[in-house]
Amino acid sequence: MCYLKRKFTQYFWRCVLVILIALTFCGWSVKPAVALLRQHHDSPGVLRYHSQVSIKDKQGYAWQVLLFKQNYNNPVRDLRLRLVAFPGVVEIAHPQPLEIEATSGKLLSASDAYAITAPAPNVGEYNLTDVLPKLPTTDALLLYVPVKGEKPLVLNIPQSVVTEWQWLVTEID
């Protein structure tokens, strides 16, 4: 019995050493992902997924950027991009479209889902159903958010977030 206990202890510490070496060379040097795929209960027993990330604009204000599917009961599901600024800092100009530019220079436009009424002046929501499939999957994006009284505000969307958006659209139902 003592022999088995000693063997188990040796085996255990070798496993711990291997894991620590692997983490040292692989895991601890990896930068964390920017985006986060989340799930929520749409109704009892029904899980839905969305991509949510916080991105700062050039002035240093944080924006919540949320991509989600809408109309799960219909065969064609709308893809919506909701942008939320800090209250009192920015007012989004409705019903202007959101302009989206890929690093290749390709420029696309997404219609304003809150063209008639927005829940708050700092909230915008745009229909990406037709836009997202046309975007490259490996490029970062620039979002030109229409704001009241000034030029559009620019949000830089990293490539890792765009990849997650594409994954949400193609892989998760």
Major beta-sheet overview? 9 strands, antiparallel
Question: From the alpha-carbon coordinates, what is the Rg to the nearest angstrom?
Answer: 22 Å
Query: Count of helices?
Result: 2
The SSE string, one letter per element, is HEEEEEEEEEH
- Whole-number mean pLDDT: 81
Indicate the proportion of strand residues. 35-45%
Determine the fraction of residues in helical runs and give it as a percent range.
10-25%
Low-pLDDT stretches are 28-35
Biggest sheet strand order reads 1-2-3-4-7-6-5-8-9
The termini sit apart by: 53 Å
Give a quick set of tags describing it.
nine-stranded antiparallel sheet; elongated; alpha+beta; single chain; 173 residues
Molecular structure report:
- The chain is an alpha+beta fold.
- It is built from 2 helices and 9 strands.
- Strands 1-2-3-4-7-6-5-8-9 form a 9-stranded antiparallel beta sheet, with helices on one face.
- It is elongated, with a radius of gyration of 22 Å.
- It starts with a helix and ends with a helix.
- About 5% of the residues have low confidence.
